[in-house]
What we know:
By secondary structure, the protein is of the alpha/beta class. It has 7 helices and 11 strands. The structure holds cytidine-5'-triphosphate and magnesium ion (MG).
Amino acid sequence: MNIAIVLAAGKSERLNDINVPKQLYLLNNVPLFMYSVLTFNNLEDIDQVYVVTNEECYEKINQYLDLYRLEKVKGIFLGGKTRQESVYNALKKLEAAGINGDDIVLIHDAARPLMDKFIVLDNIAGVKMYDAVTTAIKVKDTVIKGDEVLDDFVDREGLYQVQTPQSFRFRIIKDAHDNAMKKGLGAMTDDSALVKANGQPVHIVKGTTANFKVTTIDDLKLLEMIIL
Ligand code: CTP
Ligand code: MG
């Protein structure tokens, strides 16, 4: 089975000039989190979709999911204080529900609404081949280091910007999270980092520029320019 986990349990602290957490922000009357949920739901290769959210958004997310009645959306999980905790909570719930260790889980930020089906298909194909993949794009701009003043140029050769989905065989991501907790690595922002730290190679699947993360008001304006 191929299972998508859409993370929408954040607090939107860097995007607080709107009156709701960004996952609930409406674009064309559709809440932001629903964009990637719909992309997953509409793909034959995806079997189940779960949404992770916080107490503040739970009721609204539940109402929207009721309204859309998507056949593959199987439930809502409560997240945690950090992104890592949110993912871990979802993994524990899936384990309790009897998920198979070989099942593929795709972990995606709801804050990346323009993720497309080709990224999903490449993630699934990548896991079938390598067990663990992250989506990423090559850095295109010149990169500099500095603090107000230019200090030095960074060689961009071999540099990537990480995106989601990040996708794994269930047993690999669960084991990485279990071990991270044991070692006290409690607030890593990225699942591929946990898997790598657990000794498992992570392959790179090509993302797109459109799959950017809505983090600040600038990003939201860009998104509105693209889709409104
Ligand atoms: N996320 C989550 N649980 C958390 C923190 C984040 O599920 N405790 C999710 C967010 O909802 C988002 C994704 O992880 O879809 C990427 O996080 P980010 O862009 O940082 O969102 P927020 O944490 O909400 O924003 P901020 O860091 O500005 O507060
Ligand atoms: Mg955050």
